[in-house]
Amino acid sequence: MVTSDTPTIPDIFQDAARTISTHRRSAAKLRKTLMAANTSEKRKQFNLDYITALTRILPTKPNDKEAERVVEFLAPFLSEEQDQQLQERLDSVVHVTMRVFLPGLRAKDKNVRFRVAQILASNIRYTSTLDDELSHALEIALIDRTKDKDAAVRYHIFVDEEKGKNIAAAITRLLDDQVGKVRQTVMESRAWELQGADKSLLFAKIRDTEVVVRKEAFSRLAQVIDLSTLKFAHRERLMKYGLEDRDKSVNDACLAMLRLQLNDKELLP
């Protein structure tokens, strides 16, 4: 029975949109509502109300603060839970959400594609398993959207794709993205550890126009190359571009790479 003191799902989302200070409390209320849905029909109604609340932010522009707060609210609601029954229900909500919103990645409206990418990113982070059909559909959709004409969509797609099974294509394509923030996101991502660094891609990025990208390229090269096995021309190129870079952070990253290599060869005390 719903009383005047019982918050509805729209009420909870409205509170979440107003301020992030109440997000933990609102997430607890939403979880309580989810656990109270103890029949199949009630869980269907929960999913419907939850999806409807998220759908309201789809047309909003990227700088809409209330919509941003709604997206941030998903983290405390969906975060991993020790209670097995609650975790199973949260996983179910994630799967339903992804199935509903995945087609939105092809929407004509760039704002809709942007919000869908954000929602998917939040859901992917907090799901423990995906069935093969959904996982395959997600992989295809995300790789396809790495070619999206809107940079904000491409950025969030890579954030989504980090948990994918095969991200090599996304890494290769987005490292050449025309927007520096997208390239920077790829370089700073854990995806390199998950996928395995491609040395040729890293070599190419030591001359990137973005300082952070150049610095990260040297930092990652330090972990995956052996200078003694490189041709002299390649070693010379690394030293020239790293030590003569106009930014000190890139110089330092190059020097750190050298020190690590020398230490590995036990040439330094």
Secondary-structure map with pairings?
Blueprint (H helix, E strand, L loop, with lengths): L8 H10 L4 H14 L3 H16 L9 H14 L5 H18 L8 H16 L6 H14 L5 H11 L6 H7 L5 H9 L2 H5 L3 H7 L5 H14 L7 H12 L4 H17 L5
Helix pairs in contact: 1-2, 1-4, 2-4, 4-6, 5-6, 6-8, 7-8, 8-10, 10-13, 12-13, 13-15, 14-15
How many whole angstroms does the radius of gyration measure? 23 Å
How far do the termini sit from each other?
A: 73 Å
Return the structural class.
Answer: mainly alpha
Rough outline: elongated
Fraction of residues in β-strands:
under 5%
Please write the string of helix (H) and strand (E) elements: HHHHHHHHHHHHHHH
Question: Which spans have pLDDT < 50 for at least 5 consecutive residues?
Answer: none
Count of beta strands? 0
What is the helix content?
55-70%
Largest sheet: none
Mean pLDDT across residues:
82
Number of distinct helices: 15
Multimerization state = single chain
